[in-house]
Amino acid sequence: MAGHVESGNWIIDTHDQSVREEVWELYSQVWAKAGCPATLLEIDDEASLSFEEMCSEALKAKKFQKKSLNDYSCITS
After folding, report:
1. Contacts from 49-53 at CB under 8 Å and sequence distance 24+?
2. CA angle 55, 60, 62 (to 5 degrees)
3. Which residues, including other chains, have CB under 8 Å from residue 32's CB and lie 6 or more apart?
């Protein structure tokens, strides 16, 4: 998971912004279906996010995982 910027017709994966809400929504739709894989939040050294904002972004994954589990069961092997 990573933030991006929009530049005209292009969306550029920059890793220096917060993950957008619609990306988190998509994540919640596929996470459990994909077998509940580990999640990596990518933030590069040029990000303008504070440490607290980065922690908040990381905790969003748990929120959207719980949402995903409301609709789908994890596949365990």
Report:
1. 49/16, 49/17, 49/18, 53/18
2. 110
3. 65, 68, 69, 71, 72, 73, 74
CA–CA distance, 19 with 57 (Å, rounded to integer): 7
Give the span between the Cα atoms of 62 and 77, in whole angstroms.
21
Provide the token pair at 67.
């949402």
Query: What 3-state DSSP class applies to 18?
Result: coil
Residue with tokens 């550029």: 12
Polymer length in residues for the chain: 77
- Given this model, what pLDDT does residue 75 score? 52
As a whole number of angstroms, the distance between CA 76 and CA 70 comes to: 16
Instruction: Read off the pTM.
Output: 0.73
pLDDT in tens, 3-27: 888 899 998 888 888 888 989 999 9
